[in-house]
């Protein structure tokens, strides 16, 4: 099935560093969502974006809905060990029966 | 907040048997529920979309006779893996769409031996 292009695929950073990841698509999306998944668990919503250009923060996390509606990024500032996990972007298109299309995921490892 | 309960969290079954996975929205009504499959180190792949009281819509390549979905109420959807084989071993995740948006279950690890 169709997927969003998410990068980087993995990151290994030092605690305290900032992290940035992004998703791109050739199609327009009406909604962009960012999720975090811990091993053996379902994804948990971090940030939801509904409007082109929207910039939203959730604690140390900031995400933006690209102005072209074809991309989104997620930033994590001052990373901590519990940020470890897999981060997924997901997009929803208009009239798509509400189904989400997921990126390939970014695996984040944080070295204390 | 919206909570989705998925059971069982893990199951081991013998090849040829069937397994049922339940997905319940505990504090909201879910007009639509989604079933995903996730292989190790891979993303979530949508299997099917189910609306209460109607037949599920399956994604291309997903066998509807093998993965039976029932969405009998606004708070319960079930996925039955029929005649399971080792290649069906995977992590299955449900998602319910309500007023709060999309809420995911905690997943079911299926191992077919």
Mind explaining what this structure looks like?
The complex is a heterodimer of chains A (112) and B (113). Chain A has 112 residues and is mainly β. In chain A, 0% of the residues lie in helices and 53% in strands. Chain A has strands at residues 5-7, 10-14, 19-24, 31-37, 44-49, 55-58, 61-65, 71-76, 85-92, 100-102, 106-111. In chain A, strands 2, 4, 5, 9, 10 and 11 form a six-stranded mixed sheet that branches. The relative contact order of chain A is 0.34. With 113 residues, chain B is mainly β. In chain B, strands 2, 4, 5, 6, 9, 10 and 11 form a seven-stranded mixed sheet that branches. A four-stranded antiparallel sheet of chain B has the order 1-3-8-7, with no helix packed on it. Chain B has no helices and eleven strands. In chain B, 0% of the residues lie in helices and 55% in strands. Chain A binds chain B through residues 1, 3, 33, 35, 40-45, 48, 88, 97-105, 107, and chain B through 4, 6, 32, 34, 41-46, 49, 57, 59-60, 91, 93, 95, 97, 101-107, 109.
Cα end-to-end separation of chain A? 37 Å
Using only CA atoms, what is the Rg of chain A?
13 Å
Largest sheet of chain A: 6 strands, mixed
Q: Low-confidence parts of chain B lasting 5 or more residues at pLDDT below 50?
A: none
Q: What is the strand tally of chain B? A: 11
What percent of residues of chain B are in strands? over 45%
Return the structural class of chain B: mainly beta
What does the largest sheet of chain B look like? 7 strands, mixed
> Which pair of chains has the greatest number of interface residues, and how are they split between the two chains?
A-B, 22 and 26 residues
Strand content of chain A: over 45%
End-to-end gap of chain B: 38 Å
């Amino acid at each position: 099935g169709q997927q969003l292009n998410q990068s980087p695929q993995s990151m290994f950073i030092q605690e305290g560093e900032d992290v940035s990841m992004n998703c791109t698509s050739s199609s327009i999306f009406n909604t962009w969502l960012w999720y975090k998944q811990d091993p053996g668990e379902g994804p948990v919503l971090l940030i939801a974006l509904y409007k082109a250009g929207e910039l939203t923060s959730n604690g140390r996390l900031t995400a933006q809905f690209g102005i072209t509606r074809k991309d989104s990024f997620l930033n994590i500032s001052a990373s901590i060990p519990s940020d470890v996990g897999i981060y997924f972007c997901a997009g929803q298109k208009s009239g798509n029966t509400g189904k989400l299309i997921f990126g390939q995921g970014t695996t984040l490892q944080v070295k204390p | 907040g919206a909570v989705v309960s998925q059971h069982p969290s893990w199951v081991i079954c013998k090849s040829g048997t069937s397994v049922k996975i339940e997905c319940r929205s505990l504090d909201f009504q879910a007009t639509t529920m989604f079933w995903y499959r996730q292989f190790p180190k891979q993303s979530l792949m949508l299997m099917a979309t189910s609306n209460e009281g109607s037949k599920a819509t399956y994604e291309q390549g997903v066998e509807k006779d093998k993965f039976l979905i029932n969405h009998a109420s606004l708070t319960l959807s079930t996925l039955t893996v029929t005649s399971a084989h080792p290649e069906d071993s995977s992590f299955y995740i449900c998602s319910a769409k309500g007023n709060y948006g999309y809420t995911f279950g905690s997943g079911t690890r299926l191992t077919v031996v």
